[in-house]
Design a protein that fits this description.
This protein has two domains: 3-68, Chemotaxis receptor methyltransferase CheR, N-terminal domain (Chemotaxis Receptor Methyltransferase Cher, domain 1), CATH 1.10.155; 79-279, 3-Layer(aba) Sandwich (Rossmann fold). 45% of the residues lie in helices and 18% in strands. The protein is built from 13 helices and ten strands. The strands form two sheets. The chain has a seven-stranded mixed beta sheet, sandwiched between helices. The protein is globular. It starts with a helix and ends with a helix. Mean pLDDT is 88; it is low at 271-289.
């Protein structure tokens, strides 16, 4: 791949998805886009770039999806789900006893393992949530992974990664060599396509936001902007859950870490969030590109 083509692809991916690739990631682009180019009947990356520059919107979407589809698995990293069950939901049950409802957003739902893990965790809480209205919104940039998530069909390899055997038997049905999430669990989740670079205020406010293992791919300015906008979508006593390699520290005052709960954050003083929002870089131009 020649340098001009690589720079074009870097810029395209940054503008369309927020993915911020360093100068030494040519191998990553080639490994993911060469198969895509060949599938489209193109000779390689140079011809692919020519087609992209010609304005093929379908091809642009395919390139962005190929580069932003990331690995996930059930109960990934385990600790966030322990926090969800033992800290977050215990507080929510007390704080929302009057309205008996909870809204949860998985902001990078990918192929569905995270939102289904949350749904199973809630089901396992049994009587504590009887009569509660539970709403889980799972969003992702890629329509392809959302379709997989909606179907809830996983290979033997996928269900063996992180999913306890008792939950597999309880919440999945085996068909041949695949396993499908049962209808009751699938009905708990709404899957929607969403680009975090664009406005997401239409989703409303949430008690819990999981935004794990996606912001690590963004530059600092984009992270700050997204954090500030997330702060406007979360209840004042809600919870933000980030990935193990992610933090708000040094980036924004809109959230504060919870002591002894790695990856878990609470909204800060609403006045700080308002000030941060006013000072945030404008995303309208970026979102409209």
């Amino acid at each position: 791949m020649n340098p001009p083509d690589y720079e074009y692809l870097r810029k395209l991916l940054k503008e369309r998805s927020g993915l911020d690739l360093s100068a030494d990631k040519q191998y990553l682009i080639e490994s993911r886009l060469l198969p895509l180019a060949r599938k489209a009947g193109l000779s390689g990356i140079p011809e692919l770039v020519q087609k992209l520059q010609g304005g093929s919107s379908a091809l642009i979407t395919s390139v962005v999806e190929a580069m932003t589809t990331n690995e996930t698995f059930f109960f990934r990293d385990k600790v966030p789900f322990d926090h969800f069950r033992d800290t977050i939901m215990q507080d929510i049950i007390k704080a929302r006893a009057g309205r008996r409802s909870v809204r949860i957003w998985c902001a990078a739902g990918s192929t569905g393992q995270e939102p289904y893990s949350l749904a199973m965790t809630l089901k396992e809480m049994g009587a504590a949530l009887t009569g509660w209205r539970i709403e889980i919104i799972a969003t992702d940039l890629s329509q392809e992974v959302l379709e997989k998530a909606k179907a809830g069909v996983y290979s033997q390899f996928e269900v063996q990664r992180g999913l306890p055997i008792q939950m597999l038997m309880k919440y999945f049905k085996q068909t041949g060599e695949t396993w499908q999430v049962n209808p009751e669990l699938r009905a708990m989740i709404q899957h929607r396509q969403l680009n975090l670079l664009q406005d997401f205020s239409h989703l409303g406010t949430f008690d819990v936001i999981f935004c794990r293992n996606v912001l690590i791919y963004f530059d600092q300015e984009t992270k700050i902007n997204i954090f500030n906008r997330l702060a406007r979508q979360i209840e004042p006593d809600g919870f933000l859950v980030l990935g193990a390699a992610e933090t708000v520290v040094g980036l924004t005052d809109t959230f504060k870490p919870i002591a002894d709960r790695r990856g878990l954050y609470k909204p800060n003083d609403p006045r700080a969030a308002a000030a941060a929002g006013a000072a945030a870089p404008r995303m309208a131009a970026m979102a409209g590109r």
